UniProtKB/TrEMBL annotation:
This is Protein-L-isoaspartate O-methyltransferase. The gene is pcm. Keywords: Cytoplasm, Methyltransferase, S-adenosyl-L-methionine, Transferase. It is found in: Cytoplasm. It catalyses: [protein]-L-isoaspartate + S-adenosyl-L-methionine = [protein]-L-isoaspartate alpha-methyl ester + S-adenosyl-L-homocysteine. The keyword RNA-binding does not apply. It comes from Flagellimonas ochracea.
């Protein structure tokens, strides 16, 4: 009898702790959305809801989990970073996504931004140039049940012609100029958001709108981003 009581108490305590852990991550997300995102003017309901629901702590390395909901970018290994929550929300809102949209992301990294996009759009195609990151984000997204995200390892410069055209394109690595193949793969009426500027400097987040006879570009925010790199071997072939 005593043994049963001990076992019962053990599981009760275990349960309380794990529930507490989850609540605290959710609580941290609520605070993050309110104080970092809504406070800075993000008001697109689907973006706010995605930021509230995607468990950002799952996408950062173990030793960074305590900082997962801090107001800054974090290292994710391979010299790369996961963007600050506000930047993720800002770029997402700027695309004006709809449930029916097909989105292309360049720079999967941890997979976090792809997960946020997948909560709002119909499908997300995302390309990562670092093989280790492509593999780990693919596995993680699968484990967490993000069924409408497809990850591919490769150089995103050439986009994903087989799945084009896209309603929206998001580039999450800083490019020196806008890759022409990405412009070509954007649907008429589509929107692209991309950080552009010289490496090791402040870049501009540019919103590109593809209209019938013209392409409209607007600088929407100065930002810092890890560089958009090219796979020289692959591109030569
Ligand atoms: N969106 C990511 C963060 C991106 S960091 C997240 O939510 O975690 C930028 C990523 O772009 C890095 O992982 C980097 O390896 C990748 N990258 C850089 N150049 C690229 C290219 N040409 N094609 C695909 N990915 C690229």
């Amino acid at each position: 009898m005593e043994k049963r009581v001990t076992i019962f108490l053990f599981f009760l305590i275990l349960n309380v702790f794990s529930v507490k852990g989850q609540v605290s991550y959710l609580e941290q997300r609520k605070v993050m959305v309110k104080s970092q995102i809504q406070a800075r003017g993000i008001n697109h309901p689907a973006t706010l809801s995605a930021m509230l629901n995607v468990p950002r702590h799952e996408f950062v390395p173990k030793d960074q989990k305590v900082f997962a909901y801090s107001d800054r970018p974090l290292p994710i290994g391979q010299g790369q970073t996961i963007s600050q929550p506000y930047i993720v929300a800002f770029m997402t809102q700027t695309l004006r996504l709809k449930r029916s949209h097909r989105v292309l992301e360049i720079g999967t990294g941890s997979g976090y931004q792809a997960a946020v996009l997948s909560k709002i759009a119909d499908s997300v195609y995302t390309i990562e140039i670092v093989e280790e990151l492509a593999l780990s984000s693919k596995n993680l997204l699968q484990k967490l049940g993000y069924k409408n995200v497809v990850v591919r390892w490769g150089d995103g410069y050439n986009g994903w012609p087989e799945k084009a055209p896209f309603d929206a394109i998001m580039v999450t690595a800083g490019a020196e100029s806008i890759p022409q193949p990405l412009l070509d793969q954007l649907k008429l009426g589509g929107r692209m958001i991309i950080p552009v500027g010289p490496h090791n400097a402040i870049r501009q987040l540019i919103l590109v709108e593809k209209k019938k006879n013209k392409i409209i570009k607007k600088n929407v925010m100065p930002v810092r981003f890890v560089p958009f790199t090219r796979d020289e071997k692959k591109n030569k072939g």
